[in-house]
Amino acid sequence: MKSSRLCKEDYEEVKQRLSMRQVAEFYGYREDRRHLCLCPFHQDKHPSMRIYPNDKGFYCFSCGKGGDVVTFVAALYGLSNEAACRKLIEDFSLPIKTEGLSYKEKREREKKIRRRKELDRFQTEAEGILMTYWILLCEASREFTSPHFEEAWQELSITEYRLQCLRENPAEYYADKKAVRKIGEIGERVAGWFDYPGSRTAVS
Questions:
Q1: Contacts 24+ apart (CB under 8 A), 6-12
Q2: pLDDT (tens digit, 9 = 90+) per residue, 61-102?
Q3: I need a labelling partner for 58 at 20 to 30 A (CA). Which of 105, 142, 148, 167 fits?
Q4: CA 202 to CA 204: how far, in whole Å?
Q5: Top-confidence residue, 203 or 103
């Protein structure tokens, strides 16, 4: 039966369900007390690959190889990332269905992919707007005679906060319609930054 291609959500679910320590030990690489183990990607006589259970990654201080659970298995077995992800799903019996999808399941999968693309597009555009605004504010805050001097001091910290929220939880940020509208207002503010040099109107 033909398998459906994995989507970004499948990769994320695999990485969420499996820690790097779990995966390394399953394939025969047990860490020591320093969270180090022998690196399988070069002739390693002394443990030089660090396992990071919190961020679910690994890094070898000798050969420089690093990545997450998927890239680890891909490199270990000479597989593509998709094949490595499928191997993890199978080897750990994860409840992620990739074969024999019903029409309804395919539709739901397509919706997830569209939502992810929409979210990625929003995050890229919103971060670009906020970063541009932040740079303009930083420049204005250093020049007392700037027509945007007061706005800069009013808006710098809240713009940094918005950037932090966007980067830490873009899905939650996108779900907040008020926050999304504010991004649009900031975009208009950035576009007209040099049109009205006498204006001191902030966007908060």
A1: 6/82, 6/85, 6/86, 6/98, 7/109, 7/112, 7/113, 7/116, 8/113, 8/116, 9/112, 9/113, 9/116, 10/85, 10/89, 10/96, 10/98, 11/70, 11/81, 11/85
A2: 999 999 999 999 999 999 999 999 999 998 998 877 766 666
A3: 167
A4: 6
A5: 103
